[in-house]
Design brief:
five-stranded antiparallel sheet; elongated; alpha+beta; 7 helices
Length: 449
């Protein structure tokens, strides 16, 4: 009997079936099982379940896409708002805190300070200036060594440069009578309010300034200035010839500074001060200081190089007070301008302004970030800064002495207020009072050294 091997390839999946056959009566007999061609029900059902699962996943995915489409406009709006909020801080990346000072610029600033200090030493020799010249020489050598050794520790050098610059400013001539009238450098306390009065126009005018003419031996005159047009602009200033008239809101005269709110001589912001019958303020839309003489009606202006405006560095601390980029103060025989620059990383800069020539005579740079304080004022050449404690209390926490260049961060001089927001603080050397414009209320305090 011959045995034959019959190979039948049965493709059920990917397997081959081998079937043996045998010869019987001249025939080849094979036994085949039909089960190998049976329908794969189990596998079909499994595949059907997979398809069902896939459809369910697709439906869920489609729902997520639809939900995302609904959320996208909200996310885009949120991103736009974030960009708007971050835009004022672009300077930190472009040419501010995180951009190292160029060595060439550093050396140029040192050369300029050395030249200024040398001129002072020639005119009025002193050991202090002589020592400063030596320090400037050493600082310049350090800058040159940094370049030579490729050691760019520029932020440390920048801090030292700031200190040296402040000392150079202090060495420049300041009238002796100014120094002598300030025997006690730092303020010791502030009284409770001795004047509390609502402004004479409307409680809705929450920004403005008020006070007394700060010129020594000047006629007793009081001013009241309320900002209109979105608490930003002003074109008139209300004048009183006596304290009694001011308290009674009578016999006043509204002096017109500009004819309309967008006039180039209109007032912008609440940093207004009255000195020697002249109103000093920030000119509309520019980084310029305007002076308006009430008698002659003449307006003069000068540019503040580098001063940032339009709410880039307003007073903030608790909540930002718009249009407080430039603050003016009066003290003894000078007007002071308080502002911030990108070059100083948004920290406060103090400049002494000659009120007659309208020229900057001295400039000091502090390490105090302007948006971290509520307001500032000057007393005897010392800059003071306040911060919010609560709705009814403020605190003087910082001082910078322009005479010594010393910064004090440990002050704690609390004083009362009637509302949370402060638009203006100014000290008057004539009566030694501190004047505050407090959300439409006019307050005054006695100060003690």
């Amino acid at each position: 009997m011959l045995s034959y091997l019959l190979v039948l390839a049965v493709l059920v999946t990917v397997d081959a079936q081998i079937i043996k056959g045998e010869q019987k009566d001249d025939s080849c007999v094979c036994k085949l099982s039909s089960s190998i061609w049976g329908f794969p029900t189990a596998r079909f059902e499994a595949a059907q379940n997979q398809v069902q699962t896939c459809e369910e996943n697709l439906i869920e995915f489609r729902k997520k896409i639809q939900a995302s489409n609904l959320q996208m406009p909200k996310l885009e709006l949120s991103l736009k708002n974030i960009r708007t909020r971050l835009k004022p801080f672009e300077y930190l990346d472009t040419n501010g805190l995180y951009n190292a000072l160029h060595l060439q610029q550093l050396v140029q600033e040192l050369d300029q300070m050395y030249s200024t200090a040398s001129d002072v030493q020639k005119k009025t020799p002193s050991k202090e200036t002589e020592g400063l010249l030596k320090e400037l020489t050493n600082a310049k050598k350090e800058a040159q060594d940094m370049y030579k050794d490729n050691m760019f520790n520029l932020e440390t050098m920048k801090s030292k440069l700031l200190d040296l610059n402040n000392r150079v400013q202090t060495c420049k001539t300041i009238p002796e009578d100014f120094r002598s009238t300030c025997h006690q450098r730092i303020m010791s306390s502030i009284s409770s309010p001795v004047v509390t009065k609502l402004n004479s126009i409307s409680k809705s005018y929450i920004s403005g300034a008020w006070g007394r003419d700060a010129k020594q031996n000047s006629k007793e005159r009081y001013f009241e200035h309320c900002l209109m047009s979105g608490n930003q602009l002003g074109i008139t200033i209300r004048m009183y010839n006596s304290y009694e008239d001011f308290m009674a809101s009578k016999n006043y005269k509204d002096e017109t500074i500009a004819s309309y709110y967008t006039d180039k001589n209109a007032v912008q912001g609440s940093g207004t001060i009255l000195y020697d019958n002249t109103v000093f303020y920030q000119c509309y839309g520019t980084a310029e200081i305007c002076s308006f003489n009430i008698t002659t009606k003449a307006t003069k202006r000068m540019k503040m190089d580098g001063a940032e405006i339009n709410n880039k560095f307003p007073f903030c601390y608790y909540s930002c007070r718009d249009w407080t980029d430039i603050d003016l103060e009066a003290d003894q025989d000078a007007v002071w301008v308080i502002y911030a620059t990108e070059e100083n990383h948004g920290n406060i800069v103090v400049s002494r302004l000659d009120p007659l020539s309208l020229n900057i005579t001295h400039t000091w740079k502090t390490r105090l970030f302007k948006k971290s304080v509520t307001n500032t004022f000057m007393v005897c050449g010392v800059l003071y800064a306040t911060r919010f404690v609560n709705t009814y209390q403020e605190e003087v926490f910082y001082a910078f002495d322009t005479t010594t260049g010393q910064e004090i961060n440990t002050l704690s001089l609390p004083f009362e207020k009637v509302s949370s927001g402060i638009a203006n603080l100014n000290y008057n050397p004539v009566d030694r009072r501190l004047y505050m414009y407090n959300d439409g209320y006019l307050l005054a305090y006695n100060t003690f050294n």
